[in-house]
Structure prediction request, 89 residues.
Amino acid sequence: MYMTITAFIILIMIIIAKSESMLNYLIFIEYMVLVIILMIIINQSSNDWVFMIYLIYTVSEAIIGLTLLVKMNQSYGHQNINLINLCSN
Prediction:
């Protein structure tokens, strides 16, 4: 349990320090979701419905994130979309 919380905190620190493009940001978010799924599996192994609902939610979140990335790539015209440029518009 403490290892997953530590991995989650380290991942948040990496996101803050190293997120240069939107794709890296989405990959880090998906890794955070996997850590949360691991915590759910460890803590609530008897309740499968919670796991299935959370898994459906994370798949939907991943699809929405990738769709937004593709739409932003089409509108801005390049693949390396900086987060700083998005905040200034």
In short: The mean pLDDT is 72.
